[in-house]
Amino acid sequence: MNLRSILLILNIIFPLLIFSQERDSIMAPSLEYDSIFSMSELSVYARRADEIVPSQRLSGKRLEALSTHSVADALRYFSGVQIKDYGGVGGLKTIDIRSMGTNHMGVFYDGIQLGNAQNGLVDLGRFSLDNVEEIALYNGQKAQIFQPARDYGTSGSVYIRTRRPRFDEGKNYNLRTTLKGGSFGLLNPSLVWEQKWNSSITSSISAEYTNASGKYKFRYRRVLPSGQVAWDTTAVRQNGDIQAYRIEGAVFGKTSDGTWNAKAYYYDSERGIPGAIVNNVWNHAQRQWDKNFFVQAQWTKHISNRYKFQINGKFANDRMRYLNPDTTQRYQDNRFCQNEFYLSTSHYVELLPGWQMNMAADYQYNSLSASLANFAPPQRHTLLLALATQYEYGRMRLMASLLGTNVWDRVDFANNITTSGNFLSRWSPALYLSYKPLAQLEDFSLRAFYKSIFRLPTFNDLYYTEIGNTQLKPENTHQWNLGFIYARDWHQGICRHIEIKSDAYFNLVDNKIIGVPKGSGQYRWMMMNLGKVHIFGIESTAETVLRLQRHTNLLLSANYTYQSATDHTNPTDNDPYYGTYGGQIAYVPWHSASLAGTLSWKSASLNYSFIYVGERYHTSANTRENYEQPWYTHDISASYRLQRRKFTLVFTLECNNLFNQQYEVILNYPMPGRSWKGILRAEF
Amino acid sequence: MNIFKHLRLILIIGIIFSSLSSCRHDIIIWPTDQEQIGSSQTTSISAFYLLNEGNWGSNKCTLDHYDYATATYTRNIYSWANPSVVAGLGDVGNDLQVYGSRLWAIINCSNKIEVMDARTASRVGQVNLASPRYIAFHQGYAYVTSYAGPVQEGNSYNQLGIVVKIDTLTLEKVDTCVVGFQPDGIAVVGNRLYVANSGGYLVPNYENTLSVIDLQTFSETGRIAVDTNLHRILPDKYGNLWVSSRSDYYDKPSALYRISNLNDTPLINHISASNSSNIVVSNMALKGDSLFVIGNDFSYTTNLATRNFAIVNVRTAQVLTTNFISDDTDNEILDAYGLAVNPYSGEIFITDANGYVNPGILRCYSPQGLLQWKIRTGDIPAHIAFMP
Predict the structure, then answer these.
(1) Residues in chain A where the model's pLDDT stays below 50
(2) Is A632 left (phi over 0), alpha (psi -120 to 50) or beta?
(3) Residues of chain B falling short of pLDDT 70
(4) Could you report the per-residue pLDDT of A404-429, keeping only the tens digit for each?
């Protein structure tokens, strides 16, 4: 039986299998979960059947149970997500949702978007999970309307929420120190200090240091069709070292009619860029330095039961230095500096019971300077206006939004001192609908959405010396989605929670910005609005919590994604084998899946997770030379918690890629084989 | 409610997932694939090789082969002829020449020169050289330009280029001569070597000279100033050099020059069409008195592309045509890249890089400019070497 048919069958039968069991449980008021779930996590589950926007989230203990180091690693467990991982602790990791491209994804850190006007990429490998409480992914926008205009402006969004200080009865501080160490020379101590100053003000400081040599063995092997080994070589990945520290502090306040918080963040790193492994070149010398700083604040005030408002503000400064000291290549030492200033105000009004409205206005300023020859530093002013409404009528819910985007770019070309203004003004709609078809089946709802949005060309796309194209138009996406969700909790019996959801979608990406070589030689590229991609996909998620015995819980979750993402850029390149037209786009697998299980018994837990990424091609010409093997890794970890009054000690041992699979996510970037990590955490 | 029900479910899921796990298999070195194309010819040219550059970092430089007698096109002949070479031919091919019984391929980003048996493409040896660019031969020696010469002192960290002299029998590097910045094209005329210095890494302060090297002493004896960012050099049978400049990609277009009177004070002629419009150059090839010139220019100032498929008479320096493709099939070419002319039959080969990340197309035109056939190649087909 071939892979595709197995997976399609899995997709069909797996939800049904779960459906057919346990309809006899009844609701009971007592909640008595130990070790793996806290009350607050469960209350999140209970509301899920009302979810109007397809979303996925990982939080608290479940996030801890996955043997993951960074936000990017954790996102691999979501369906519809493709990760581009260049390998190692310091390697670049970016994700894209539903094959629309990395630039279409917004990443929000404690409620405010992380920007990168230069290249639109957010390296999620840099965000460690040390201080992260929840990661949530939304297709389109977040399922609430009371938010800034910018939150409506992406095709998909990831919300990273850091830990909010919470204090046990009679405690006014929390201290948490963690030490991680293991393969790749990893040494990663961190500290979190949370303090309750009075009944309305709390604060948190989190600091972390990461040091890793990034060295790991990898093996490349080729065989002849006869099965005879052509060559087989093992080497050590070089120049993947990283040294980074992060410090962030936050203050949280409560007033009688609202809340506020302010935070500052600083990240400083130096890393090697390991580079592609090619014939005769097995190590690289390129280095990169990053300094990222931001301060942000949020203030929410309830004026009455029917009106509240929110103000958000941020300033960010990002510095990057890239050095290529390799004398076999072009020597480069480039520095880039970006500034961002952001201010937003949102107003939420309940017009009638069940009918709410939000109006938001955001202003954003971005600038970039670079030490490049012929570089004209750009500045961008963005004004966003959003109007959103939410309406509930019986078993139907509706959410609609309209985002107006106005952009002015200003570039000072040094050579002939001209200033180019680039103005864009556009409205983007989104419509979400959910409906519970059966009154007696409260836990089941159908949902649908349409969203049309675009991403602006980045500063690099537009103005990078000799690559940028000032004539670029925005890259558009249109998303149509139809799906269902079934979620139910029980308070007794073996099965305590079931959640099944599945969505089918069609996305259209046009005016896709792609690099096109121009002119004669020397790698001259030019960005053009040429690409067009059609994406059809199915995502399914199922999870269950089983109470096997008193003190013994089992959590199982499974994700499966099917995607056909075809290149419709050049209709003349339509050779059925060599052509790119109709070919699956680069690095998007048809099938991907993940499976995670946590078995907990009293203070001990055992975690297992499995990730599968099916066959792919590294370009949209789907030839055998461009074929990429499927890869799948098994990770296990065991953890034990020791509690003595206010003092807690947690030991964890992880083994990632248990079967030592030698694989690549990106062509010529070998991934690590089996690796180990030990974690020791003390909480006071 | 029965726990075994759940165990059964877990088991089923487990079985399904573990059956997926059997899907990964060994990565195979594929046998070459062959196609019949064109018509059988028996002439003094028996075959040609085509070097596909492969995009940077992809390690997909491959070698294709066409046999005239059997009219057979063979893709990716190197990896099948040399299955034990770790990671294959390498990353980014940049030049290909036949010298005697051997085939020399310059593999730029693999920092090497691959030397093969010209009949079988099986490896004879490799010469390690950082950032090699173009190759020329003279009396048993190969001369290869490289960007990776001595680093200049000071803050600018500029690195001069070199020409390396290689014994074609022992494959030993025997001598080195420092030239200008980022040297590209290389050619031998008489007992002198001419090297086109580009200065491509010094944007916007490009080089504009040819280096002249005396072959006896293997030292630079002078410079000839021509134009910004020189690229290719081709000597004709009248003792002239045909030189192309890439120029600056902004206001200046690429251009073609004839350099005559080489032994005395060189004379430099800018070649333009009869209506005095410029001829843009990305590649050129010579047969008899005809210099075939393809150009594919793009200006960052105007964002406009200029193309031509020109023929220049090297005796008169007259542009005979700016589009030698007579059947309008030039519109089918997405990225005109490589160019070669069969020295016997006059067939014109133009390669289409087809977006530079996907398999390209080799197009064969008759001397009259009519499309004879086309065939898929590896990624970025670029350099053709004919075999006697």
Answers:
(1) 1-46, 417, 519-523
(2) beta
(3) 1-22, 153-156, 300, 303
(4) 999 998 887 655 545 566 678 999 99
- Measured CA to CA, the distance from residue A206 to residue B255 in angstroms comes to 60
Mutate to test the interface with B, among A26, A279, A375 (most CBs of B within 10 A): A279
- The length of chain A in residues reads 684
Where along chain B do its domains lie? 7-278
Tell me what pLDDT residue A3 has: 38
Measured between beta carbons, the chain B residues lying within 8 angstroms of A663 are: 24
DSSP-derived secondary structure for A609-658: EEEEE--EESSSS--GGGEE--EEEEEEEEEEEEEETTEEEEEEEEEEST
Contact criterion met (CB below 8 Å) for A367 and A401: no
Task: Round to the nearest angstrom and report the end-to-end CA distance of chain A.
Answer: 54
Q: Which two tokens stand for residue B198?
A: 């580009």
CB atoms within 10 A of CB A440: 6
Dist. CA A315–CA A310, nearest whole Å: 17
Angle at A663 between CA A662 and CA A667, to 5 degrees: 140
Report the C-alpha gap between A230 and B106 in whole angstroms: 24
Question: In this structure, what token pair is assigned to residue B109?
Answer: 């980003």
Domain count, chain A: 1
Q: What is the pTM of this model?
A: 0.90
Whether B148 and A328 have beta carbons less than 8 Å apart is answered as yes
Q: CA-CA distance, A81 to A102, in Å (whole number)? A: 10
Please report, as a single letter, which amino acid is at residue A612. Answer: Y
Strands A105-109 and A156-162: parallel
Q: Where in the sequence is the domain holding A374, given as residue range(s)?
A: 3-683
With beta carbons less than 8 A apart as the criterion, state whether A317 and A338 touch: yes
B29, B231, B283 member nearest A222 (Cβ)? B29
**Distance, CA of A231 to CA of A234 (rounded, Å):** 10
pLDDT at residue number B18: 55
Distance, CA of A462 to CA of A465 (rounded, Å): 9
Looking at chain B from residue 178 to 197, which residues have their Cβ under 8 Å from any Cβ of chain A? none
Residue A587's pLDDT is: 92
Q: What is the predicted pLDDT for the residue at B14?
A: 61
Cα–Cα distance list, A403 to A116, A154, B130 (Å): 20, 11, 53
What does the DSSP 8-state code read for residue B158?
-
| DSSP annotation string for A191-209 | EEEEEE-SSSEEEEEEEEE
> CB burial class (10 A; 0-12, 13-18, 19+) of residue A352?
exposed
**B204 is written with which tokens?**
């916007």
Helix, strand and coil in chain B, % to nearest 5: 10, 50, 45
Q: Is B249 in CB contact (< 8 Å) with chain A?
A: yes
Instruction: Please give the Cα distance from A37 to A47 (Å, whole number).
Output: 16
Q: Which one of B147, B282, B332 has the shortest CB-CB distance to A520?
A: B282
CB distance from A60 to chain B under 8 Å? Answer: no
**Predicted-assembly ipTM surpassing the 0.95 threshold:** no
CATH classification for the domain delimited by B7-278, as one of 1.10.10.10, 2.60.40.790, 2.130.10.10, 3.20.20.150:
2.130.10.10
Question: Torsion angle of alpha carbons A70, A75, A81, A83, nearest 10°?
Answer: 20
Is residue A212 within 8 Å of residue A125, measured between CB atoms? no
DSSP character for B250? S
Residue keyed to tokens 């487990």: B14
Kindly report the CATH number assigned to the domain that includes residue A652. Answer: 2.40.170.20
Residue with structure tokens 């099948």?
Answer: B80
Closest partner residue to B91 (CB to CB) among A279, A631, A632 is A279
pLDDT of residue A242: 95
What are the tens digits of pLDDT across the range A87-105?
878 788 888 899 998 889 9
DSSP B28: B
